[in-house]
Amino acid sequence: MRGTPKTISLPRRLICDLMRASMDVPFVSLSRPLNIRPLLEARAGAMRPAGWAAMVVKAFALVARDEPVLRTVYAKWPWPSLYELPNSVASVAIARVQDGEECVMPQRIAAPEAMALAAVDTEIRRAKTAPVEDVPMFRKVMRATRLPLPLRRLCWAVGLNFGRQRGNWFGSFAVSSVAAYGGGELHPITPGPFIVSYGVVEPDQTIQVVIRWDHRVTDAAPIARVLTRLEQVLNTEIAAELLAAGPKPIRAVRT
To answer: What highest taxon heads this organism's lineage (predicted)?
Structure first.
């Protein structure tokens, strides 16, 4: 069968490099439905509710503030060790269309636990709509992806294997979801150490959340506690911030 050769685009080359970097990570996953009724009520009453990605990013970072293991990465150089970052750094998967091709690009958000929820949401929305060259993280990854293969491999090796650089290049956790396109449980792959995915809101006011993590960093019991704590933070601190931003105006009805 005679086909048509196609050049690998820069965004697709980025994913190829990412998948190669993720191959040797011993991932384990845990999935659980979270009851988010208080959050849904707060979001319904907010004048400008934040997007789901922003709420999950900040909630996970708030949990990580009190759980140092969620800010810990596995580093190979100069010898195998665990490296604890001082604060969380999120890497959010952003769906884009670049030169007519659907692709995914990572947006880096440093210390989201210290940011207002609206500011986290603004960063994510800007990454979805601004020209690629206007988003600093996109420029950075595209510049690295344009390098010849040997130099790309060197950049990835440095970024992956030194603890400090892991935070700069890949963050302490990632968030990816296809909930905007319908239901389904996504189990994405990254170099780690943590990646969070969430589904659509179900009729019983729950949302399915999946956490995949590098088993070299921690075990299942702490992650089970993290999911419980994540549910609490979404329904308390995140819900409270939504309401504090201003309720929806009440329209007067003429009688």
So the answer is: Bacteria
Helices (H), 107-219: 117-129, 136-145, 149-161, 163-169
**Gap between the Cα atoms of 202 and 199, Å rounded:** 9
Kindly report the pTM of this predicted structure: 0.93
Using CA atoms, how far apart are residues 24 and 16, in angstroms rounded to an integer? 14
Name the nearest CA neighbour of 160 among 83, 90, 231: 83
The pLDDT of residue 246: 67
Burial class of residue 249 in the structure, from the number of CB atoms within 10 Å of its CB (0-12 exposed, 13-18 middle, 19+ buried): exposed
Any idea what DSSP says for residue 234? Answer: I
**First vs last C-alpha separation in the chain:** 73
In the chain, the amino acid numbered 203 is: P
**Interatomic CA distance for residues 131 and 127, integer angstroms:** 8
* Residue 235: how many other CB atoms lie within 10 Å: 20
The CA distances from residue 125 to 94, 95, 128, 241, in Å, are: 9, 11, 5, 18
Residues of the chain with pLDDT under 70: 246-255
